Amino acid sequence: MNDNNIAEPLSRRKFIELSALVGATAIIGGSLIGCTGSSAGASGTSAASASFDPSDWNALLEEAKGQTVTFYGYGGEEDRNKWLDTTVADALKSKYDITLERVPMDINDVLTKLSGEIQAGTQAGSIDFIWINGENFYSCKKNGYLYGPFTQYLPNYSAYIDTSAAENQYDFGEPIENYEAPYGKAQMQMWVDTAKVADMPADPDAFLEFCKKYPGKVTYPTPGDFTGTAFIECLIAGVVGKDAFEQLAQMEADKEKVRAIIEPGLTYLKSLNPYLWQAGKTFPADHSTLSQMFADGELIMDMGYGSPDSDIEDGIIPNTVRSFLLDTGTVGNENFMAIAKNASHKAAAMVAINEIMSPELQLSIYDTLGVISVLDTDKLSAAQKQSFAAVKTGVAALPADELLAHRIAEASGAVVPLIEALWTEEVVGK
Known about the structure:
Blueprint: H1 12-29, H2 40-43, E1 44-45, H3 57-64, E2 68-73, H4 78-96, E3 99-104, H5 107-119, E4 129-132, H6 134-142, E5 146-147, H7 155-160, E6 170-171, E7 174-175, E8 181-193, H8 204-213, H9 226-240, H10 242-245, H11 255-272, H12 287-295, E9 301-305, H13 309-313, E10 321-324, E11 330-339, H14 346-356, H15 359-369, H16 382-389, H17 400-405, E12 407-409, H18 416-426
Parallel strand pairs: 1-5, 2-3, 2-4, 11-12
Antiparallel strand pairs: 4-11, 6-7, 8-9, 8-10, 8-11
Helix pairs in contact: 1-5, 1-6, 3-14, 4-14, 4-15, 9-11, 11-18
């Protein structure tokens, strides 16, 4: 997911609970009390304090040579694990003599380990770089757990990333300030088995009629689950309009202001309840439960960040399953890579992150996993653009340009728990 990806195992609510725990630990630990500012100058170690000059890329490459760099992140996505262990690891070894060690670990355990090492005064930490985003990035940056700023020194960041794009300046509303580099784009989509369902709803009104047509056969995960929250954001945005909803992308936590924007969407969600599974009195706990219900035929629709092609290839669901979007748009985000404040191999981490942002590896992850590239198309050569256009996606996958054309910015990390709380208060069981 993973930090924020298709198979995200953690709910946003758990992220927030963890953020609170991390913040409390930092205060009790004492050593981080002076590192709780949210600006770049206060939130982590200065890149200039490293044992090398990060602005001298050739010197940094020499520093990194022969190092073993650890990459911590969600390990439940086998196709991605294989890509990292082979394609990425092989590129780093052959080009830079860097050994990549992938360490599969849920993000809550990563943060616990990172905070424990830092508070223990460990100067050479076991975590080098991390798959990260959202509330966990906010908590790490706020509490001084990250190294940087560093992305301004990466050649591929400057050459291929649209550094002015909001997605590369803010992570769920938190200013990035060069403390993390983009890894991949993700976007919500829905899917049905076209052998059973011929119609795919195109907007919230059509989705209501869809639920009426298939009573008890449609639902979504409980918001608080990553996918459940994202799905209701899609519907709310479709009701209130993209422009109104995207005000939430950089909004501070103010429940009444949030309510004022999303109230029509909450009313709409409540109107769905009579036609949903269990009549909207209860909802599946998480996305994995929903997906199992879809695979078992109990439900006729599933959803997630990405296409269901891997499940089709594994025979979990029929090859007649196809993805669709709402014409009113679906929410999307980027996930990122950051370096631990006390990383033992900062130079190798910078080289690895830079390489993952290369056109070659971004093309590979799109071709292999269907992950939307973080590169700015306008900065690619004609040949590179042609290579991306030539990628053959899975049978259920939607083209990247179609997804991006329907992209809506997600609510900020501060606003997400308010949306979830309002849903709990005003929608479930109503």
